[in-house]
Every structure is written in C-alpha cells, then in structure tokens.
C-alpha cells in the first residue's frame, strides 16, 4: 500500500520524483484522490508552512516543497475533477498595477494551492479592471493583492474601490513588504497577511473554513 506518511515526507523534503511516484501508486491501488490530497500533499505543505512561519525553513525550501507538490498534483488533478472534489475556495491573486515584483506573490499562490485552494494568478502590473473582470468571470470568493513598493500601495486602494464600484463582495486580502494591518484597515481590505504561510490562514478565515 502507498504510504501517505511517505508522501507527506516527500513533499516536505521536496523530492519531486518520490511525490509523483507515491501519488501514482496510491491512485493505482484505489486510494481516494481526496485522501491523497489531504493526508499526503496538503499535510506536507502544512508542515512546511508552519516551519516557514517559525523561520525554521526559508523561501528556497518552500519553493522546492511546492514544486514537489505541483508534480504530484499533475497526476492527481484529473482524478480530483473526476471524483468531483471541490477546492476550498477560489482565489484570484496578482501584483497591483505599476509593480513588477512577484516572488512574494508566487510564494503565496503556491502556499494557497498547497492548502487546497484553486488559484488564478494574474501575474504582475495588474490594473484594477483586470482584477474585476477576472473575479466576475470565475466568481472568485477571495482576491489577493500584492505590492512591494510604497509608490504602488495606492493602487491597492484604487483596486478595492473598483471592486466596490463593480458591486463585488469578494473578500480582499493584501500583503507585501511595506503593507501593514493599519493600511489594510484604512483601504477597506478584509484581511492582511505578513507572510505567505499567514496568507493561507487569512484566506481560510475570510471564507470561514
């Protein structure tokens, strides 16, 4: 029998080949795709997320673990869809207009995927209207806005205003080096995350998960 503990360890160690192999083996043996996702992949990413929060691992380790999960997900995703397993929620994420930084945003996207969210990443330099149209087209429940420059932070406020003008009740969470909880409150964002691991907790709180 494929061992979910071994799959979890493969993700934690960032062993892509083992993660893919154990996932394939588990599915071939008839293990439910939801069990593989929750007890293997998400369990591994949860350990990495907790360690990242405590500064026990750093960005490279998180990226390596996320890559191992991604490889396993390529095998698992069709089976999840077949089984009708719903994601925790759908998050649209992007770096605001005028800002080209993406490492933090990419990390948040990976951590959210690792926690079972469907993530639509719009990339960098995203204008408010692009966020609005994407959220409308896929009916996203949460939107993550990232800014790494103090000069692009006002675009967060403009984007939040654009959501209100469009009548969207999507929950907005914000983050990035210069962003603070006070700023999030000031612009009317529903949540603020100081780092990628916290972003997962915030997204879950916003959805009441």
Which features does this protein show?
Methyltransferase, Methionine Synthase (B12-binding Domains), Chain A, domain 1; 209 residues; Rossmann fold; alpha/beta; 59% helix; globular; 5-stranded parallel sheet; 11% strand
Structural description of this entry:
The chain has 209 residues and is an alpha/beta fold. It has 2 domains: 4-82, Methionine synthase domain (Methyltransferase, Methionine Synthase (B12-binding Domains), Chain A, domain 1); 90-207, Cobalamin-binding domain (Rossmann fold), CATH 3.40.50. The protein contains 9 helices and 5 strands; from the N terminus they run ααααβαβαβαβαβα. The protein has helices spanning 4-13, 16-28, 33-53, 59-82, 103-114, 128-138, 153-165, 181-187, 196-207; strands at residues 90-95, 118-121, 142-146, 171-175, 191-192. A 5-stranded parallel sheet has the order 2-1-3-4-5, sandwiched between helices. Helix 5 (103-114) crosses helix 9.
CATH topology of the largest domain: Rossmann fold
Let me know the average pLDDT: 95
Rg (C-alpha, Å): 17 Å
Number of strands: 5
- Strand percentage lies at 5-15%
Please identify, by name, the CATH architecture of the largest domain: 3-Layer(aba) Sandwich
Q: What's the CATH class label of the largest domain?
A: Alpha Beta
Estimated helix fraction? 55-70%
- Please report the distance between the alpha carbons of the first and last residues: 31 Å
């Amino acid at each position: 029998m494929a061992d979910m503990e071994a799959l979890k360890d493969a993700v934690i160690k960032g062993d892509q080949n083992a993660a893919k192999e154990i996932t394939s083996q588990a599915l071939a043996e008839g293990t439910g795709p939801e069990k593989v996702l929750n007890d293997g992949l998400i369990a591994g990413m949860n350990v990495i997320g907790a360690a990242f929060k405590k500064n026990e691992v750093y960005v490279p380790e998180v990226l390596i673990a996320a890559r191992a999960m991604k490889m396993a997900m390529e095998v698992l995703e069709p089976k999840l869809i077949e089984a009708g397993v719903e994601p925790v929620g759908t998050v649209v994420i992007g770096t605001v207009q005028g800002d080209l930084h993406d490492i933090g945003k990419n990390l948040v996207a990976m951590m959210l995927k690792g926690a079972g969210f469907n993530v639509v990443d719009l990339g960098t330099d995203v204008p408010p209207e692009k966020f609005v149209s994407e959220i409308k087209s896929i009916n996203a429940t949460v939107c993550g806005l990232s800014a790494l420059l103090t000069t692009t932070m006002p675009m967060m406020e403009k984007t939040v205003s654009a959501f209100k003008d469009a009548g969207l009740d999507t929950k907005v969470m914000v983050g990035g080096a210069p962003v603070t909880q006070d700023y999030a409150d000031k612009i009317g964002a529903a949540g603020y995350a100081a780092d990628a691991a916290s972003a997962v907790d915030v997204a879950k709180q916003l959805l009441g998960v």
